[in-house]
Amino acid sequence: MAKALVGYRVASDPRLMLETVELRRRVRDLEYLVERLQRDNDQLREDLRQPATVAAGMPTIAG
């Protein structure tokens, strides 16, 4: 993805090289975040499919 942002040519300007490295790091971090959020979302969906698990963790009001 960073190649798409910067291009395929080799950057000789140190600023462009640094920016490319930073963009690659940022893309990697965002990809990791997306994976983690997808795992968390899958776990939440699984928890919702098990009503006993959800109900056990919810406080009740006894009157």
TrEMBL record:
The organism's place on the tree of life at top rank: Bacteria
This chain belongs to the protein called Uncharacterized protein
Keyword set for this entry?
Coiled coil
Q: Give the residues annotated as coiled coil.
A: 20-47
